[in-house]
Design a protein that fits this description.
Order of helices and strands of chain A: EEEEEEEEEEE
Number of helices of chain B: 0
Strand content of chain A: over 45%
Number of helices of chain A: 0
Oligomer: heterodimer
Largest sheet of chain A: 6 strands, mixed
Radius of gyration of chain A: 13 Å
Structural class of chain B: mainly beta
Largest sheet of chain B: 6 strands, mixed
Shape of chain A: globular
Strand content of chain B: over 45%
Helix content of chain A: under 10%
Distance between the termini of chain B: 36 Å
Helix content of chain B: under 10%
Largest interface: A-B, 21 and 21 residues
Number of strands of chain B: 10
Shape of chain B: globular
Structural class of chain A: mainly beta
Protein backbone atom coordinates (compact mmCIF):
# COMPACT_ATOMS: atom_id res chain seq x y z
CA UNK A 1 0.00 0.00 0.00
CA UNK A 2 1.32 3.45 -0.90
CA UNK A 3 1.91 5.87 1.97
CA UNK A 4 -0.29 8.49 0.33
CA UNK A 5 -2.96 7.58 -2.19
CA UNK A 6 -5.06 9.81 -4.39
CA UNK A 7 -7.58 9.27 -7.16
CA UNK A 8 -5.65 10.39 -10.26
CA UNK A 9 -8.78 11.72 -11.97
CA UNK A 10 -9.19 13.61 -14.16
CA UNK A 11 -12.14 15.41 -12.69
CA UNK A 12 -13.86 17.35 -15.47
CA UNK A 13 -16.27 19.93 -14.08
CA UNK A 14 -18.03 23.03 -15.41
CA UNK A 15 -17.29 26.49 -14.07
CA UNK A 16 -19.16 27.16 -10.87
CA UNK A 17 -19.28 23.53 -9.80
CA UNK A 18 -18.22 22.24 -6.40
CA UNK A 19 -15.63 19.48 -6.49
CA UNK A 20 -14.03 17.42 -3.74
CA UNK A 21 -10.85 15.35 -3.66
CA UNK A 22 -9.93 12.76 -1.09
CA UNK A 23 -6.55 11.45 -0.09
CA UNK A 24 -5.75 8.55 2.23
CA UNK A 25 -2.55 8.01 4.20
CA UNK A 26 -1.20 4.85 5.76
CA UNK A 27 0.74 6.03 8.82
CA UNK A 28 -1.51 6.86 11.77
CA UNK A 29 1.38 8.76 13.41
CA UNK A 30 1.27 11.43 10.71
CA UNK A 31 0.99 14.93 12.11
CA UNK A 32 1.32 17.43 9.29
CA UNK A 33 -0.80 17.59 6.16
CA UNK A 34 -0.81 19.91 3.17
CA UNK A 35 -2.38 20.42 -0.22
CA UNK A 36 -0.17 21.57 -3.07
CA UNK A 37 -1.18 22.68 -6.53
CA UNK A 38 0.87 21.98 -9.65
CA UNK A 39 0.11 23.64 -12.96
CA UNK A 40 1.13 21.94 -16.19
CA UNK A 41 4.91 22.04 -16.64
CA UNK A 42 5.36 24.12 -13.49
CA UNK A 43 6.68 23.41 -10.02
CA UNK A 44 4.33 22.44 -7.14
CA UNK A 45 3.19 25.31 -4.94
CA UNK A 46 1.71 25.19 -1.46
CA UNK A 47 -2.05 25.71 -1.56
CA UNK A 48 -2.88 25.28 2.11
CA UNK A 49 -2.03 23.42 5.27
CA UNK A 50 -4.63 21.09 6.75
CA UNK A 51 -5.49 21.51 10.42
CA UNK A 52 -7.26 19.06 12.70
CA UNK A 53 -10.31 21.26 13.07
CA UNK A 54 -10.58 21.85 9.34
CA UNK A 55 -9.76 25.13 7.69
CA UNK A 56 -10.99 27.36 4.93
CA UNK A 57 -9.27 29.76 2.58
CA UNK A 58 -11.73 31.53 0.32
CA UNK A 59 -13.31 28.95 -1.96
CA UNK A 60 -11.07 26.16 -0.62
CA UNK A 61 -11.85 24.01 2.41
CA UNK A 62 -9.54 21.35 3.78
CA UNK A 63 -10.58 18.71 6.28
CA UNK A 64 -8.80 15.97 8.17
CA UNK A 65 -10.33 12.75 9.42
CA UNK A 66 -7.75 11.06 11.66
CA UNK A 67 -9.93 8.06 12.51
CA UNK A 68 -10.27 7.14 8.83
CA UNK A 69 -6.87 8.55 7.87
CA UNK A 70 -8.04 10.70 5.06
CA UNK A 71 -7.79 14.32 4.02
CA UNK A 72 -10.15 16.16 1.75
CA UNK A 73 -10.06 19.31 -0.34
CA UNK A 74 -13.29 21.00 -1.37
CA UNK A 75 -13.33 23.67 -4.07
CA UNK A 76 -16.50 25.74 -4.38
CA UNK A 77 -17.51 27.85 -7.36
CA UNK A 78 -14.78 26.39 -9.59
CA UNK A 79 -12.92 28.77 -11.89
CA UNK A 80 -11.12 27.98 -15.13
CA UNK A 81 -7.93 28.97 -13.34
CA UNK A 82 -8.42 26.14 -10.82
CA UNK A 83 -7.47 23.64 -13.52
CA UNK A 84 -4.33 21.95 -12.22
CA UNK A 85 -3.09 18.84 -10.44
CA UNK A 86 -3.68 18.83 -6.68
CA UNK A 87 -1.11 17.01 -4.57
CA UNK A 88 -1.84 15.63 -1.14
CA UNK A 89 1.20 15.81 1.14
CA UNK A 90 1.71 14.06 4.47
CA UNK A 91 4.36 13.98 7.14
CA UNK A 92 4.38 10.23 7.74
CA UNK A 93 6.19 10.04 11.05
CA UNK A 94 5.21 12.89 13.28
CA UNK A 95 7.85 15.41 12.36
CA UNK A 96 10.95 13.28 12.11
CA UNK A 97 11.06 12.52 8.42
CA UNK A 98 10.50 13.98 5.02
CA UNK A 99 7.06 14.82 3.68
CA UNK A 100 5.49 12.31 1.30
CA UNK A 101 3.75 13.56 -1.84
CA UNK A 102 0.80 11.81 -3.40
CA UNK A 103 0.77 11.34 -7.16
CA UNK A 104 -1.91 14.02 -7.54
CA UNK A 105 -5.48 14.44 -8.73
CA UNK A 106 -5.99 16.25 -12.00
CA UNK A 107 -8.80 18.82 -12.22
CA UNK A 108 -10.04 20.30 -15.48
CA UNK A 109 -12.62 23.10 -15.24
CA UNK A 110 -14.40 23.87 -18.51
CA UNK A 111 -16.61 26.80 -19.56
CA UNK B 1 12.47 37.74 -1.43
CA UNK B 2 14.58 35.13 -3.13
CA UNK B 3 13.04 31.73 -3.63
CA UNK B 4 14.70 28.44 -4.46
CA UNK B 5 16.95 28.92 -7.45
CA UNK B 6 17.95 26.12 -9.83
CA UNK B 7 20.36 26.10 -12.71
CA UNK B 8 20.48 25.46 -15.54
CA UNK B 9 16.80 25.74 -16.40
CA UNK B 10 17.30 23.48 -19.41
CA UNK B 11 20.06 21.00 -20.20
CA UNK B 12 20.42 18.90 -23.32
CA UNK B 13 23.25 16.41 -23.43
CA UNK B 14 24.32 13.24 -25.14
CA UNK B 15 23.88 9.81 -23.65
CA UNK B 16 26.91 8.80 -21.62
CA UNK B 17 27.89 12.30 -20.53
CA UNK B 18 27.90 13.47 -16.92
CA UNK B 19 25.67 16.35 -15.81
CA UNK B 20 25.58 18.58 -12.75
CA UNK B 21 22.44 20.32 -11.57
CA UNK B 22 22.57 23.09 -9.02
CA UNK B 23 20.14 24.19 -6.33
CA UNK B 24 20.36 27.30 -4.18
CA UNK B 25 17.80 27.01 -1.37
CA UNK B 26 16.01 29.76 0.49
CA UNK B 27 18.37 31.35 2.97
CA UNK B 28 18.05 29.83 6.43
CA UNK B 29 16.24 26.69 5.29
CA UNK B 30 17.89 23.67 6.86
CA UNK B 31 16.20 20.99 4.77
CA UNK B 32 16.81 20.52 1.03
CA UNK B 33 15.22 17.95 -1.27
CA UNK B 34 15.71 16.67 -4.78
CA UNK B 35 12.89 15.16 -6.81
CA UNK B 36 12.43 14.24 -10.41
CA UNK B 37 9.28 14.27 -12.43
CA UNK B 38 8.78 12.60 -15.78
CA UNK B 39 6.14 13.95 -18.16
CA UNK B 40 2.67 13.34 -16.77
CA UNK B 41 3.98 11.53 -13.70
CA UNK B 42 4.08 12.33 -9.99
CA UNK B 43 7.07 13.50 -7.99
CA UNK B 44 9.74 10.89 -7.44
CA UNK B 45 11.78 11.54 -4.30
CA UNK B 46 15.54 11.24 -4.81
CA UNK B 47 17.44 12.52 -1.78
CA UNK B 48 17.17 14.98 1.08
CA UNK B 49 19.50 16.81 3.41
CA UNK B 50 18.62 18.00 6.90
CA UNK B 51 21.17 20.22 8.61
CA UNK B 52 24.38 18.34 9.35
CA UNK B 53 22.74 14.92 9.44
CA UNK B 54 23.62 12.20 6.98
CA UNK B 55 21.46 12.60 3.87
CA UNK B 56 18.56 10.27 3.15
CA UNK B 57 19.58 8.73 -0.17
CA UNK B 58 16.84 6.15 -0.25
CA UNK B 59 15.29 7.48 -3.45
CA UNK B 60 18.36 7.54 -5.67
CA UNK B 61 17.60 5.15 -8.56
CA UNK B 62 21.17 3.98 -9.16
CA UNK B 63 24.78 4.58 -8.17
CA UNK B 64 25.11 6.91 -11.15
CA UNK B 65 23.23 9.48 -9.07
CA UNK B 66 24.85 11.41 -6.25
CA UNK B 67 24.32 14.71 -4.48
CA UNK B 68 26.25 17.00 -2.22
CA UNK B 69 25.30 19.94 -0.07
CA UNK B 70 28.23 22.17 0.75
CA UNK B 71 28.24 24.38 3.81
CA UNK B 72 24.62 23.57 4.52
CA UNK B 73 23.45 25.69 1.60
CA UNK B 74 23.95 25.06 -2.13
CA UNK B 75 23.42 21.53 -3.40
CA UNK B 76 24.61 19.80 -6.54
CA UNK B 77 22.98 16.72 -8.03
CA UNK B 78 25.31 14.78 -10.30
CA UNK B 79 24.27 12.15 -12.81
CA UNK B 80 27.10 10.15 -14.31
CA UNK B 81 26.99 8.31 -17.65
CA UNK B 82 23.52 9.63 -18.41
CA UNK B 83 20.91 7.37 -19.99
CA UNK B 84 17.83 8.33 -21.97
CA UNK B 85 15.58 7.28 -19.11
CA UNK B 86 17.19 10.02 -17.01
CA UNK B 87 15.31 12.60 -19.10
CA UNK B 88 12.94 14.41 -16.74
CA UNK B 89 12.44 17.63 -14.82
CA UNK B 90 14.62 17.69 -11.72
CA UNK B 91 13.06 19.73 -8.94
CA UNK B 92 14.73 21.04 -5.83
CA UNK B 93 12.84 22.17 -2.74
CA UNK B 94 13.77 23.57 0.64
CA UNK B 95 11.97 23.98 3.94
CA UNK B 96 12.70 25.60 7.28
CA UNK B 97 12.83 22.20 8.92
CA UNK B 98 12.02 18.70 7.74
CA UNK B 99 8.26 18.65 8.38
CA UNK B 100 7.49 22.18 7.25
CA UNK B 101 6.02 23.04 3.83
CA UNK B 102 8.49 22.75 0.99
CA UNK B 103 9.15 25.55 -1.47
CA UNK B 104 10.13 24.45 -4.94
CA UNK B 105 12.44 25.87 -7.53
CA UNK B 106 11.45 26.10 -11.18
CA UNK B 107 13.30 22.88 -11.96
CA UNK B 108 15.89 21.81 -14.50
CA UNK B 109 14.52 20.17 -17.63
CA UNK B 110 17.05 17.50 -18.59
CA UNK B 111 16.96 15.91 -22.02
CA UNK B 112 19.28 13.06 -22.92
CA UNK B 113 19.73 12.50 -26.63
Amino acid sequence: RKEVEQDPGPFNVPEGATVAFNCTYSNSASQSFFWYRQDCRKEPKLLMSVYSSGNEDGRFTAQLNRASQYISLLIRDSKLSDSATYLCVVDPSGGYNKLIFGAGTRLAVHP
Amino acid sequence: GAGVSQSPSNKVTEKGKDVELRCDPISGHTALYWYRQSLGQGLEFLIYFQGNSAPDKSGLPSDRFSAERTGGSVSTLTIQRTQQEDSAVYLCASSETVNQPQHFGDGTRLSIL
